[in-house]
Design brief:
Order of helices and strands of chain A: EHEHEHEHHHHEEEHEHEHHHHEE
Strand content of chain B: 35-45%
Radius of gyration of chain A: 19 Å
Mean pLDDT of chain B: 95
Radius of gyration of chain B: 15 Å
Distance between the termini of chain B: 35 Å
Strand order of the largest sheet of chain A: 1-7-4-2-3
Distance between the termini of chain A: 16 Å
Oligomer: heterodimer
Shape of chain A: globular
Number of strands of chain B: 8
Largest sheet of chain B: 5 strands, antiparallel
Helix content of chain A: 25-40%
Number of helices of chain A: 13
Number of strands of chain A: 11
Low-confidence stretches of chain B: none
Largest interface: A-B, 44 and 41 residues
Structural class of chain B: mainly beta
Strand order of the largest sheet of chain B: 6-5-4-7-8
Number of helices of chain B: 2
Chain lengths: 387, 141
Amino acid sequence: MNRRVCVAGVGWADGPKTPELTALGLQAQAFGRATADAGLTKQDNDGLASAGYGGMHEVQLAEYLGLTPHWLDSTSCGGSSFEFHALHAFRAIQAGDADTVAIVYGNNELSAAGRSLGTGRAGGGGGAAMPYPMSFELPTGLTLVGAYAMAAQRHKHQYGTTAEHLASIAVQTREHAARNPHAMYRDPITIDDVLNSKLVADPLHKLDCCVISDGGCALILTTEDRARDLGRPLVYVRGAAAGMTHHSIQAMPDLTVTAGAVTGPKAFAEAGIRATDVDTFQMYDSFTYTVLVCLEDLGFAPKGEGGPFAASGALRLGAALPTNTDGGGLSATHPGMRGLFLLCEATRQLRGEAGESQVKGAEIAVAHGSGGWLSTMGTVVLGTEPA
Amino acid sequence: MSDDTGVPSYLIPRVSPEAEEYFAGTLRSELRVQCCDDCGLHHHYPRIACPHCGSGRLQWITASGLGTVHSFTVIRQQGIPIFKAQVPFVVALVDLDEPGARFIAQLPALSPADAAIGMRVQVQFRPASDDLAFVEFAAHD
């Protein structure tokens, strides 16, 4: 059996600020909306995937939803977990192990924990509970932002990438956010605004960093046959790949090359596409540098030229590679992990349902998730036609 | 707070079995790293098998303590109180002269304006508890 796989439904939870909802509540809201969007009942989902911060999160979610799925995926490797889930669900549905899999995420990061994500939380995470590799990192005072910053610094050193190059990514993403009524920040910003915002960890400024919000979303994958019956515009999973390079940033083999250099070409090959075929790119923009380095790793720009490529305006609507058309993590939504929003936005674009943000004639969309500290990467190619 | 070092207990790692020699070395101001008999490369943090080649034939050596900054950042926002009081400070990836071993470390005395990729640095030790000292680096002329 090697069945084709399509998106059945997508849904978004409320956001960007929802103090009245728990993480599970946001997940249930997104799941309900995706199920309704698909025209399914909840029991039609015989598989469930989710990533959270404790153990058995997807089991908790299934119970909360009143589901007893026979296929589960709790892969939890940071913000790219959901591209891993999509890859695993794609294979499971192709093979016949599951028919319809819901991938669900939601978190009340902003309301529950405030804005400290990535810059150290007072009193948290150390001592006997410190994971072994962190024993050599946490006492240095390095933050999550700092780990990305060291990678960006090395890229600047090797390739002449500038703070302006990085800032241009934030500026173009904000232009997309202006068209999204649910985005956290919508007012236009300039390169100077980014460069004049507070340095958090050199060379990354505050506006090079993603926002902290509440929110959630869900994506349901199913067989082509069932998707046809449901009558929504068909969006095919054409190819997918996932991989990793390191946990601690000191073990990253090359600070200027991510596992995307492997997962991108592998997913593109399965999908039968080249980088130039991609109509819109949904890229986990935890930081501006994450976008810059992955533009190179996925082949949209040669290695070392991601900065000039981005600064040329290529990420805008109507330009070569409209990127993060919902306003991304940099301006719109980031409840702690963003990987699933990429797949949902890619679907919205390919269905032609993106309204003012629509990439005209979009036929191929790529969602690329990054997790940890550029640690784990997953690429999913979606299209309006099968591979 | 641990006695007289000012380091909060939640920042002090548990001394795991594979790192006992490393942490014991920090108390003697010796930078102990493992070297692989099979591939000849060093590594850090301590492990029971070489991350480069997988061999279990490892020896502890005392490193020269000299290295080169591969990259760095200046931490300017940190929520943990002891670090919040210290910002801005430099954290770097330091490649030891012994090939294969890379450290994340603070350079607490270095002015952010003087931090540079490629600069030479030398290890120093800051007492953190009865069991270990933190490994830091300083500019080396």
